[in-house]
Amino acid sequence: MTAPAPSVTAQHDELIDLLPPHFRFGAATSAFQIEGAVAEDGRTPSIWDTFCRVPGAVDNGDTGDLACDHYHRMPEDVALLASLGLDTYRFSVSWSRVQPHGRGPGNPAGLAFYDRLVDELLSRDITPWLTLYHWDLPQELQDAGGWPARDTAYRFADYAELVHERLGDRVTHWTTLNEPFCSAILGHVEGVHAPGGRSLADGVAAVHHLHLAHGLAVRRLRAAARRPLDLAVTHILGTSGPATDSEADREATRRADALGFRFYLDPILRGRYPQDLVDDLAVHGIEIPVRDGDLETIAAPIDTLGVNYYRSMRTSGVDEHGATTDARGIPVTRNLPHGGLPVTGLDWEVMPHDLTDLLLRIARDYPGTPVVITESGAAYEDRPDAHGFVDDTDRTAYLAAHLAAVARARAGGADVRGYFAWSLLDNFEWAYGYDKRFGLVRVDYTTQRRTPKRSALWLRDTAHRVRGAAGRGAADRGAAEKREGES
To answer: Active site includes 375?
Structure first.
């Protein structure tokens, strides 16, 4: 198997080659999407185990019961990661596996699994990039109120400390939360993710308590650290612009930006919620449930901002019938595609230039914040040949365009230090089940056979070219990042 034809990526190679040798190339996964073994070794149900049993909630009635069987095939998957020359692996820990009731003592068998995973990674000179929460709240905590309840934030801080006690001697990179927007808004307002709620008030409370959980965990991890840590939180972000130059569309864009962007970055990086967001929520009769001291806790300093990027939207303040308010008198805020752009297998528009704009905005509005692209990728209609190989030139071109967008942002002054493809493996893709494939590696779900796709081989060769033929070790990367941070 060879690298892609030059025509697929050549237009981006010159920019990609500007990335520094210590730039991180990695791949990302999450526990529920790949591990399986949902009832083994003491693991208890999470909200996603429950949600998968709701009729119609997940395409084809798919579940995460087996997924990629990573729980049993982990050494094979780490060896695969190493064969692709990727220097960083972003994975998440299953809260239900390591603390089955969401409180109380740890589960030795669950903790031992992540012990082995970390050791496997380090033995192959791959940096573990650990995410503590990727949406799989223990069901017992959901039954006690879930993220709309303040107590869940304190349970998360306990859990973070428990995992750090076991792995903190070897893991340096810790991400508290993955995409609070999805946990709170998709899970509690739009109802398309677990736990399937439909209350804006619950969603707003969940956002605040997720932020509080992050801040509490950062403080706990700093206090318990036995070595310097790189602490992060990951947000799914995009750009937004008005569909037209009308006042209604410009105002709708401001509202969308407040609710979908500044709601997440301002409290963590500025120690406050945007006042215009507070005013917008008041129109709905909703207050953010802030208590004294919360914002100081939430703004505990972090070392890296994780950015997950897939697409951006235009925003309109007019509904499909031409009205600017709904039946309750609430102003309309409607997201629209740009139109005329190539799309992925999910009909998501491919917009690498907006990634550049997004990164430059972060550099401008939140100066001094190092960024890593912790997820970026695309689902396409993969067609394997007789040997299981997927000649995914579409995904390869997507990765090349987005890496070039990162290089362009760096040239403009954005401090971006790595790019992790979503995902290492085809996997359980949440409400889409197994039909949508994002992986660099094809998984035959019947046999569990793994086959690297052309995109994986291209990313391998690109990482090798950027870092130089001699390669580099983890210590060299750390020293280089330290120098960059001091410059």
So the answer is: yes
